[in-house]
């Protein structure tokens, strides 16, 4: 099981306010620090002789065609874990979200623990070589069919027209579906694909997948193929850890069943939103902790466990919203929105993806605590703010809005200035301006939170 648990949200171009496609994932870890970096990998920096750290997998890679952004671990001793990024062909990929499986498929197609692929590998092996979302599905599918995997994962790809959601099934099998243009998907840590049509041009899968299901009596339904029931789980853990996250987002954005319960296993896979989605709406649900319900952890006493796992946690490492725009010149298409640290206390910044470097406060993350760096700054905000959440909530929310407003203003200006020509150097300089805004405003927020904490110290007389 991957340590990076995560939650994913995807949106087709007709489901968003400006016609962009969206691939979004917040990356989690265990209850410990795992510093993250934001980097641009040029073709010259891409490894050519690749070796996994989590298995004995090795592969000589072709000459890379594209550079790409990514958010790898600062400590690469366990692997790269590129997480998510946009390449210079304006294709986005996020990898991975840990999902569930069941003993029936694992007995037929065991995991390849010896020399299979895992989360640490996927982005590096795929994103530098693909010019479309469909090509990403095909390349990753071919790798998994040939080499196998040692864990259950979900991955997503997008280009300016299409968004694809991909799940591993057992050790060597997989399936992917295209997200409808006018719909969104919220995917917690379970197998999420429901009804699957093998004859559709909007699905892809391992070549022998239908035969595997039919020959081994894996399908509990007399008609159709529901992959969540065929390959997934329906455990008590799903009812408290996974399903409630999908339920809450569907209640907020629309398209879910109004009478559904948080623990329901049969929540829809793709939903039509009540309104076209904005970056702000996506950030709000990806920072959610069941606000407005009785399940909000902040309703409970310290150390008292809330009934359901929320999207926002102290274990959030980073949130990336990979936006591919359709109303701008090609160099401006890719926007790698990024926020490090726990989502309740961070702020999204719209970094251009077609660059040659990334801002130092996001790129040069130290393995040890250094509050000048964004990863550690947001963790400091969370450590202080969580202890006084009701008092500081307005300050935190206002700061996140202020960062969005200020960085959107810069983005609007740069879009206008670079409408006829945008070089990687220009966009790199713009990203440095965006990072400086976020660093300044979040540092100012930290000062305000320390002031609140100081006034609430017990040692007063």
Automatic annotation (TrEMBL):
Substrates-to-products reaction catalysed: an L-aminoacyl-L-amino acid + H2O = 2 an L-alpha-amino acid
The organism of origin for this protein: Limosilactobacillus oris PB013-T2-3
Classification via InterPro entries: C69_dipept_A-like, Peptidase_C69
Source species, domain of life: Bacteria
Gene: pepD
Gene Ontology process terms (BP): proteolysis
Name by which UniProt lists this protein: Dipeptidase
Entry's family note: Belongs to the peptidase C69 family.
GO molecular function annotations of the record: cysteine-type exopeptidase activity; dipeptidase activity
EC number: 3.4.-.-
Keywords of the record: Dipeptidase, Hydrolase, Protease
């Amino acid at each position: 099981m991957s340590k990076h648990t995560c939650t994913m949200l995807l949106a087709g171009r007709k489901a968003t306010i400006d016609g962009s496609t969206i691939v979004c994932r917040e990356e989690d870890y265990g209850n410990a620090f795992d510093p993250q970096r934001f980097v641009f990998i040029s073709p010259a920096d891409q490894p050519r002789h690749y070796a996994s750290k989590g298995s004995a997998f090795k592969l000589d890679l072709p000459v890379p065609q594209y550079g790409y952004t990514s958010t790898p671990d600062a400590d690469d001793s366990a692997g790269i874990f590129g997480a998510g990024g946009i390449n210079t062909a304006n294709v986005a990929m996020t990898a991975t979200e840990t999902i569930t499986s069941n003993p029936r498929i694992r007995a037929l197609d065991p995991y390849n623990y010896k020399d299979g692929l895992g989360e640490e590998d996927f982005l590096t092996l795929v994103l530098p070589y693909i010019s479309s979302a469909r090509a990403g599905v095909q390349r990753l599918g071919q790798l998994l069919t040939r080499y196998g995997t040692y864990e259950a994962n979900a991955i997503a790809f997008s280009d300016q027209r299409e968004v694809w959601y991909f799940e591993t099934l057992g050790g060597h099998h997989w399936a992917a579906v295209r997200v409808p243009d006018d719909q969104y998907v919220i995917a917690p840590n379970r197998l999420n694909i429901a009804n699957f049509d093998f004859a559709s041009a909007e699905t892809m899968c391992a070549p022998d997948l239908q035969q595997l299901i039919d020959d081994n009596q894996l399908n509990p339904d007399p008609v159709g193929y529901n992959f969540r029931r065929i390959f997934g789980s329906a455990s008590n853990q799903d009812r408290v850890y996974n399903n409630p996250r999908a339920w809450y987002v569907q209640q907020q954005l629309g398209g879910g069943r109004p009478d559904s319960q948080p623990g329901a296993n049969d929540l829809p896979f793709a939903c039509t939103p009540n309104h076209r989605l904005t970056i702000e709406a996506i950030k709000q649900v990806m920072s959610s902790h069941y606000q407005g319900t009785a399940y909000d952890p902040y309703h409970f006493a310290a150390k008292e466990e809330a009934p359901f796992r929320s999207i926002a946690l102290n274990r959030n490492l980073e949130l990336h919203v990979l936006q591919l725009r359709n109303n701008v010149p090609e160099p401006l298409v890719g926007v790698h929105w990024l926020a490090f640290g726990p989502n309740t206390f961070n702020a999204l910044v719209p970094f251009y993806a077609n660059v040659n470097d990334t801002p130092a406060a996001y790129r040069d993350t130290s393995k040890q605590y250094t509050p000048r760096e964004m990863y550690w700054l947001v963790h400091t905000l969370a450590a202080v703010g969580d202890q006084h959440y009701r008092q500081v909530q307005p300050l935190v929310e206002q700061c996140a809005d202020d960062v969005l407003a200020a960085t959107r203003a810069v983005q609007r200006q740069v879009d206008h200035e670079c409408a006829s020509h945008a070089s990687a150097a220009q966009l790199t300089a713009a990203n440095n301006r965006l990072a400086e805004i976020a660093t300044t405003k979040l540092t100012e927020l930290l000062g305000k939170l320390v002031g609140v904490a100081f006034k609430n110290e017990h040692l007063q007389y």
